[in-house]
Amino acid sequence: MSGLEEILAYIDGEADKQINGIVSEADARIEAMREESHRRRDGECDRIKRNAASRQKLILERGRASAELRRKQLLLEAKQELISNVIGSCLAKLGSLPDDEYFDLLIRSFKRDIPAERAELRMNKRDLGRMPESFAETISGLSEGRVHIAKEPVDIDGGFILDFGETEEDMSFSSLIGENDSAIRDICSHILFNEE
Q: Please, are residues 173 and 91 in contact by the beta-carbon 8 Å criterion?
């Protein structure tokens, strides 16, 4: 081998060493970059999983809370409807009481607040038609003649209205129930659902 060939072989050997070093260094860098990329990817996947789990938990909690609220609303609506039906049934029952019981109830209602001034006791057409004579006498006696029964009917469901001329006191069943609606509903709720 001549000197030139030796020099060229030496240069080729050195070039191969440098190329191999560069390739090794590039491979090491690529591997390091790949490992860093995998580490970042795994970290990002873990972060996404944690966020998704947190969001899933939050969505489930909100869904449960919303479902529970809706359940309570539906239950309350059903209870209110049942109570309204009970009150309606009571009103219907009051209207269908036998005449003697019905007018005894009106007398008891009248006795609670006997007017001290002159008034007309006004009733609906049905009650005027079935009123016993003793009722008018009892009302007149209890009020010492200050209250008499009006002959013209009024449009009420039952009970009576005391007409003082310029003012009235509505003692109709629907009015009494309306004035005491909250207390009546509380009592019904307690009886029907054992609630305070």
A: yes
